[in-house]
Amino acid sequence: MHRRIIAPGALAAATLLLAIPASAATHSPGTPGIGDPYYPDYGNGGYDVSHYDLRLTYQPETDELSGTATISARATQDLSRFNLDFLLDVSEVRVNGAKAEFTTARQHELVVTPRTPLAKDTPMTVVVRYSGVPSAKSAYGFTAWQRTPDGGVAADEPEAAWWWFPSNDHPLDKATYDVSVAVPDGTQAISNGTLQSTSSKLGWTRWNWRENKPQATYLATLALGRFDITTGTSESGVPVINAYSKDLGDNDGAARASVERTGEILDWLTGYFGPYPFSTAGGYVPNTKAGYALETQSRVYYSPRQFANGSNTSVVVHELAHQWYGDSVSVKGWKDIWLNEGFARYAQWLWSEHEGEGTAQQLADYVYASHPADDPFWTVKPGDPGPDKQFHVAVYDRGALAVQALRNEIGDKAFFTLLKGWPRQHAYGNASVADFQKYAEQVSGKPLAALFDTWLFQPSKPPAPAARAASLAKAPAPAQPKSWKKIQATNDVHTG
């Protein structure tokens, strides 16, 4: 213990400190970020969420959203205050039943000070009452809420929750969800998981959705508008719920011809990745202007632009592959994005093989030959691309090349064992590229550090393996596989 002399001018302050109970004096604020170097202010420290209960009302004519979020969590430290990531206008916050003080900070932080500090491991029930117009809110110069002619949509990466519910917005803090939304009769509310029930009263219909498996905040989605909803069951027994805006125009037929194959594609993917990890599947196509698709958990978001040139099963494959690689097994940090995008793109290569439109190796050869050594493509490191290049095409294509290089190195038996084993090993949790390398070495019995470094972390074109180099040297430039244009059409899956 260190002693120090208190200056006379500080005596009054010291006396006040002595009046604070010793237990409370040890409490400290949770950090305003969870510690991700790509996004230092995203997520929060000091607590862990287990469940979000969102009871909302939405008016499509004005884009007004109001309601109450009840957040079940646990303090992970002796906690004096904590942050939630949120943008709408808050009228009241309660923590464990008592009114709490709250203010805002930075661009998207709601700072909550409970009446009584919370001891480590104390259960927390946080109630937030709020309202606002999501489309009128922005942070860092953008909005993740998409206004549509008949409502609105929340679907974006790496952030979307701030515009519709307060959260600990980082994949490290996954939780289960109940989403209940009242909308005027004739409007539908689409969200993740299972539709538990609907009920109508006095001109309003309430839609109650439940996602009973842990879900990252950016994978939570909400779509409000006029939809045609279809239901079915895959051959393996997975319930499938799809929804299409009633004003998709010329894109409607191609969207349905693609998304209605969800059950078939899902069952096909189980042959590579193992049992489907969620209770329902499906997708929705709202009338949005943005061009991307997103693997929102169990209910994929697709932009109509994905179907502007006709049906596009390749994008459906990509987003459904994410249900294993990205949704069930989520990144520990955003630098681990290769674990999501490299494998979702590789699933498209496997689908190409299945459709007889080019093998995975032919696609790998074509991508490798298409980018000369001085192409900036090779300066992007899929294993740690940086926040500005997190969704660069190299993360997808060079990322899939890395997967094919791994397959060639360890052989098909170990590789396909690995593809199925990884989602089972880390089901409903989080993992890093380093964790994947360790698991791949365990499954294959081979040291793989050099291969991972070469294909994921070096800002240069990897040399072709000797056998491939000799083969490629004797042959003309690889022909473009038939599936290439379809795969390329999905390059903007996460950019607008």
TrEMBL record:
Its cofactor is Zn(2+). It catalyses: Release of an N-terminal amino acid, Xaa-|-Yaa- from a peptide, amide or arylamide. Xaa is preferably Ala, but may be most amino acids including Pro (slow action). When a terminal hydrophobic residue is followed by a prolyl residue, the two may be released as an intact Xaa-Pro dipeptide. It comes from the Bacteria. Its EC number is 3.4.11.2. Residues 310-455 form the Peptidase M1 membrane alanine aminopeptidase domain. Keywords: Hydrolase, Metal-binding, Metalloprotease, Protease, Signal, Zinc. Residues 50-219 form the Aminopeptidase N-like N-terminal domain. Residues 467-496 are annotated as: Disordered. InterPro entries: Aminopeptidase_N-like_N (IPR045357), Aminopeptidase_N-like_N_sf (IPR042097), Peptidase_M1 (IPR001930), Peptidase_M1_aminopeptidases (IPR050344), Peptidase_M1_dom (IPR014782), Peptidase_M4/M1_CTD_sf (IPR027268). Residues 1-24 form the signal peptide. Residues 467-482 have a biased composition (Low complexity). Belongs to the peptidase M1 family. This is Aminopeptidase N. The lineage of its organism: Bacteria, Bacillati, Actinomycetota, Actinomycetes, Kitasatosporales.
